[in-house]
């Protein structure tokens, strides 16, 4: 799906007005490396380990905008947080493989991350270097490290 003008405008407005609710001291802001994720192809909440050679990064900035880079596409949108709650919205995924721009090796991983982000309701930090992203039932869907 190509980013729509509404998505682009929403991201631009979030950047412009995000500083009104500045929580720049939050430990969740910054770059996080994807370590494990819940694969949408399985029916359980068992986590899949990301290959150590891959560098998938989720960036959370203090304007409420997030970016996730993978080996092929990018996922972006908005997020809201308050103490331990976390919710992602306006999520868009570039589709370079579908558009024939490049060949993507692991679209399942990217689709899993996109689907998981839509379900995130809270987070938990461990020693400010590991973050667990969880759904409404406190199932861990994504594990990230600084």
UniProtKB/TrEMBL annotation:
Domain DUF306: 48-141
Keyword Cytoplasm applies: no
Alphabetical keyword list: Signal
Cleaved signal peptide residues: 1-24
Domain of life: Bacteria
UniProt keyword annotation of GTP-binding present: no
Protein's name in the database: DUF306 domain-containing protein
The species this protein was found in: Parabacteroides distasonis
Lineage: Bacteria, Pseudomonadati, Bacteroidota, Bacteroidia, Bacteroidales
């Amino acid at each position: 799906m190509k980013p729509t003008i509404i998505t682009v405008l929403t991201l631009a407005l979030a950047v412009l007005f995000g500083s009104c609710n500045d929580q720049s001291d939050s430990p969740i802001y910054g770059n996080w490396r994807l370590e494990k994720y819940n694969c949408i192809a399985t029916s359980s909440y068992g986590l899949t380990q990301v290959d150590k050679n891959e560098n998938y990064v989720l960036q959370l900035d203090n304007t409420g905008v997030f970016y996730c880079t993978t080996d092929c596409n990018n996922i972006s949108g908005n997020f809201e947080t308050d103490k331990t709650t976390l919710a992602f919205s306006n999520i868009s995924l570039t589709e370079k493989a579908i558009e024939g721009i490049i060949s993507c090796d692991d679209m399942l991983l990217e689709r899993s991350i996109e689907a998981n982000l839509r379900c995130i309701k809270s987070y938990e930090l461990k020693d400010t270097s590991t973050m667990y992203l969880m759904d409404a039932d406190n199932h861990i869907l994504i594990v990230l490290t600084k």
